[in-house]
Amino acid sequence: MKKRFYGIKRLLAAFVAATLTFTAAGVTTVFAAQTVYENKTQETITRGVTYEKNSRMTTDGIQDIYVLTIDLTESTLELKEVESKTEYGLKETVQKMLTDNGAIAGVNSDFFGMAGTYSAGFGPVVRDGELVSAGTSINQDKNQYGTYVKDKNGNSIFTYFKTTVKFSNSAKTIDLASINKVTSMVFPILFNREAATSTADLDKRFDNLVKFVVQNNTITYISQKGETVEVPENGYLIVMSGDYYTNAASVFKVGDPVTLQVSSTIDFDQIDTAFGGGGLLLLDGQEAPATDIVAAGRQPRTAFGVSQDGTKAIMMVVDGRGDSIGATHSEMAALMKEYGAYEALHLDGGGSSTMVVQTVDDAAPQLQNTPSDGAQRKVIASVGVFQTAPKGEIKEIGITTVNQHTQPGKTAEFTVYGLDEYKNRIYIAPEDVTFEVVGVEGTWDGYLFQPTTTGEYSVVATYGDGLTAVANATCYPTARLKATYPDASIKNVGGTTNIYVTAYDTEGFGRAVTNDVTYTVANPAIGTMNGNTFTAKAKGSTYVKCSWAGQDTYVTITVGGASKVTAPASTSAADPLQQTVTKQNDGAFYLNITGELKYTGTGKVDATTYNAQRSRVRSAADSGADVTVYGGPCDITTPTVQDSLTWNGSYRFMNRDGASVVLLAASQGIRKTDPSQYGRFTQDIAAAGNDTIIFVTDKTPSDYPSAAEADYFRAILNKYVEDGKTVFVVSCSGNAYWASTKDGVRYINLPDLWRADGTANSNVYMLKFRIADDGVTYQPVKV
């Protein structure tokens, strides 16, 4: 089966905004871990800002790294810390906070108190040259919490910031806990219009607060306890608890002249931007000592840094406590330095670590990383990147689809959008776009495309004066249906259960068809269907036949603890690549693959049977092909009739006539068995450039000890599929033959010749491949 539209993809690669890079050149040391392979995607999200995801396989596990690089010389870009627009001091997710404030990207920022719905960041906040907030408790006894400062001359400074605030009349001086940082209100704070226009929200949170209204350096009003007051436009409030006022501040009176003394590491009047974080990471290009508030070991982490010349800012998140191993303090410093930072600091990490980005394909900022809590934590502040340039003339267009893989009877939805010189996204109506489809036939309804034939296709969208973009998609025939829950149990009559069905095409891509399926109850006396909902009418059991696109699957349902009935087997269509393979003199390359022929168990094997069985299978494998691959240890010492390659527990590679054959050792997963294989097979496959890739291995990915590594390996395979390659993973283990197709990759298991007890396995298969310019076909043959 010849790939068609992927050739178009390569020709029109200039339309693709994101770039994908496989890197496997040598081994990079990351302190205790070594990087053996990395998969990077990078794209420009607006002029002067790039977003990169780098998923690294290291000797210690997967390390997922997310990086924003911001050009600080771009006049239309702004970088600033933001907080909730809903209510001052309210904790919200990074995504909501940045979206509400109009940012295009950003990360979580300052440390904060975890308890409760409200909190305050620990570090100072200066935004657009105005002091928003500052606390007086941090770094007084020792340096712990770092701060980033950009002064009004554009200089970036990373320091341990200290602030003190004193409020005095002629009789007394009191120390203020903060400017606009609202925590427990044990001590007085200064409160101005950078926080709110009145104390209404404060008074909902705290009882009996007393407020001094200060204008022109004079107390003009002292409120009653709990009284809500307006914040003066040209002044401020001193807010305190009723008890503090009674016990320590009653000497302040209306009409008193007062002074406010603010002392800080750097004069606030000289600061354009400031926000707080954790300990410093880099100073003068070298790793800074970790302070005692920096969590030890590998953790999820967020960091911010600036290049030596001050022209670039780097925001980074490293996932941890899950599939990704996280980073130590030293590893984070090294990563920030690798990406161009000269000075840097930790931002809040752990479950707070979050990055959101609005790419050119997105209408709003989207979560990019995987927070360790399983969902976004509500935080107090975020550092956002803002594009201030107004939307201009469309300079280029893009196209996206939410249904890249569809099936006959289902539509694919495409969206075309414009981008100006700053990559601001601009709406384009479907009637203003001309579509050309290459590869299949079909009809358009606005942005909805209904294929009427099957295959791979490209959609070329044209707008205005020749602006063009391309999207690639497929419409393969439906191969099988699968119910999400094939067995359901209802406790009582009158109870219900919902049925959800996915249709998989011949290349293993799934599409939800729950609302398209025809549902038929085998025994209507037990229950009825309404849409996809089954309602029990009587105690007993039945099954529901789910039909769509010529395929059926079944869901068994029991009511009231009844025994389950046996449902028919689901139907499926044949794999179009599975055809009879007979060696011809036609210029094609013929390849045979067998499972393991050597007995490696501890049982007793009859010598005569042992030799006869091995010879029988080898004779079949050693004929009708140009090359035979033995997918496991083979202890036959006589020469083969034709070329052969034997799996021997270590990496091997064969480049032959359009096929790349990779022998992988993965008994403990690839990483623990031999992590260097990642770099070797990606390099070898890239150098060979073949359209057919066949992995032969001792363990299928679904049996890896680490599910995360299985997903990581599959992601690499899926990239090959996206590039138009035909990919097989042939595992050789166990006593059963099976085959499945998932996301364009064919997974096949060839059983061993011998059972564990030393008896011959009667269920032995081999694979026969034909590989030619017109594509690849294969045939499983029982030996």
Automatic annotation (TrEMBL):
The answer, when asked if Signal is one of the entry's keywords, is yes
Location of the Phosphodiester glycosidase domain: 212-386
The signal peptide stretch is: 1-32
Q: Which domain of life is it from?
A: Bacteria
Q: Sorted alphabetically, which keywords does the UniProt record give? A: Signal
Q: What is this protein called?
A: Phosphodiester glycosidase domain-containing protein
Q: What species is given as this protein's source?
A: Anaerotignum lactatifermentans DSM 14214
The upper taxonomy is:
Bacteria, Bacillati, Bacillota, Clostridia, Lachnospirales
